[in-house]
Amino acid sequence: MTKPTVAIVGRPNVGKSTIFNRIIGQRMAIVEDTPGVTRDRIYGNADWVNQEFHLIDTGGIDTGDEPLIEQVRSQAELAIEEADVILFATNGREGITPADEEVARILRGAGKPVVIGVNKLDNWQMQDFVYEFYNLGIGEPVAISGSHGSGFGDLLDEIVKHLPEKDDDPYDEETIRLAVIGRPNVGKSSLVNAIVGEERVIVSDMAGTTRDAIDTEIHQDGQDYVLIDTAGMRKRGKVYENTEKYSVMRAMKAIERSDVAIVVIDGEQGVIEHDKKIAGLAHDEGRGIMLVVNKWDAVEKDGRTMKQYTELLREEFQFLTYAPVLFMSAATGARVQHILPKVKEVAENHNMRLPTHILNEVIMDAVAVNPAPSDKGRRLRINYITQVSTAPPTFTVFMNDPELFHFSYERFLENTLRRSFQLEGTPLRLLARKKN
Ligand code: GDP
Ligand code: GDP
């Protein structure tokens, strides 16, 4: 299930970031803590009257030191490309400016629904300022105050009215949905091309739908795969294309629709913080994960290099001890053929369902050999474990007191499961529950 997207556009200082925070409320959003950037959240989840949607603050996409008019232009283009509904933020106290007119001009041609948020109308005496904005000739203007929170009911009603119907994935359950993610220039599109190179490929252009992605379907050795959301990798030359925040947003959208995420690392450059952030998103969403070190052709190496590199990755991605590591070169095609078989394996592990009695045997044996240490005179007792769902495999562990279930013991149980069962590439979740 894909949620529709709403993007906020508008010139600087009209209150986009304030509006964004109002709509998102206290919900978690991606935290981009780049120093020197005032606004750290640009992408979040919102809902209104049971309609869920993504919200993007295009003002947070760094487009460099461009002149103002260029900035609002690229933000408007981004919104058109990404969003189902565009929230055009203006400053009601200042009225329509040339930059507003430019945004309106771009949006008018786009065929996407637009709602105009006429901001900074902090009291009722100012409400009449809203009428001027009908002159922009796009969308309904709604008086709001980001600071006070007024008008947001009407604004959200208007936005939700234009959201498209929920859009189910057209692929059957057996199809493995694969996202190739990573920061700019690590070789994602080269890798996608190398993977699909020899296969029969169906490219379905989903532009205009909620998905707004180009999916590539592949069939290999009796298995269907679909490569998700490679559109952003193909459309080149946009100003925002190579910014980190944009790539995080792209990754997030692709991850949401995927079963397995391939995190691509540039073997030549090594791991940087941004790689971890992107991999972290896939981990938090509970997707199957593989680490692919690309550009291996460009790395000077001897017989030990792969082993050393793997150790380095384990060090850098401590939360991803379960992810298989593959080395390859999209440029020469070396070892690219190992990807899909591994993806299939990871997808199977991600969907693993373990029989309850074997599960309990394994865990109870481990617990008997290695009981939890006592904590202030009290000792954790595990009663039994049961798998409650798959993708990722999720277990409820019944115990005397969940407060005594410390991270180290959770890790011990997880490692026990991993040693006993085929779970490479998939995160696991253990839920502590008090036994009544
Ligand atoms: P952005 O650059 O469009 O994201 O704008 P910001 O959200 O950073 O807001 C710019 C300035 O306008 C800040 O000083 C905000 O406190 C202020 N501001 C935002 N919304 C309102 C509002 O509804 N009323 C008033 N009076 N000020 C606001
Ligand atoms: P993306 O931004 O992650 O999609 O990266 P691209 O696929 O556009 O690749 C970025 C750059 O890396 C391009 O110049 C590619 O030619 C180069 N590149 C990609 N894969 C490889 C590889 O396996 N080896 C080498 N040496 N260069 C590569």
From TrEMBL:
The gene is der. Residues 4-167, 176-351 form the EngA-type G domain. GO terms for biological process: ribosome biogenesis. Associates with the 50S ribosomal subunit. One of its GO terms (molecular function) is ribosome binding. NCBIfam families: GTPase_EngA, small_GTP. Gene3D superfamilies: 3.30.300.20, P-loop containing nucleotide triphosphate hydrolases. This is GTPase Der. The keyword Glycosyltransferase does not apply. Belongs to the TRAFAC class TrmE-Era-EngA-EngB-Septin-like GTPase superfamily. EngA (Der) GTPase family. GTP 2 binds at residues 182-189, 229-233, 294-297. It comes from Salsuginibacillus halophilus. GTP 1 binds at residues 10-17, 57-61, 119-122. Keywords: GTP-binding, Nucleotide-binding, Repeat, Ribosome biogenesis.
